Amino acid sequence: MTTDEDVELVPPGFRFDMVWRGYDRRQVNEFLDIEVRTIAMDRDAAVDMVADLAGQIEASRSELDALRTRLD
């Protein structure tokens, strides 16, 4: 089981500047904006891949149906 200490939320070597009440909010917001955009792009790529694979599966099913018809 993974504990909170085992999970790295920020890539190694990336550090936020310390300010009076925690971390520099601007840096954290910029970091999160970049992460959200990256995750959204990865999601969009995955959705495109799923759509492409679904099309390939449908084409394979059609080909299989045609071959079954020829066999009969």
Would you kindly provide a written description of the structure presented here, covering whatever features stand out?
A hairpin with a 2-residue loop joins β1 (18-19) and β2 (22-23). The protein has one domain (21-71). The protein has 72 residues and is mainly alpha-helical. The longest helix has 47 residues, at 25-71. The protein is rod-shaped and about 80 Å long. It starts with 17 loop residues before the first strand and ends with a helix. Strands 1-2 form a two-stranded antiparallel ribbon. It is built from one helix and two strands, in the order ββα. Helices cover 65% and strands 6% of the residues. It has one helix at 25-71, and strands at 18-19, 22-23. The mean pLDDT is 87.
Number of strands: 2
Give the number of domains.
1
Biggest sheet overview = 2 strands, antiparallel
Structural class, please?
mainly alpha
Distance between the termini: 55 Å
* Overall pLDDT: 87
Helix content class: 55-70%
List the total number of helices. 1
* Unreliable stretches: none
Give the DSSP E fraction (strand runs of 2 or more residues).
5-15%
What strand order characterises the main sheet? Answer: 1-2
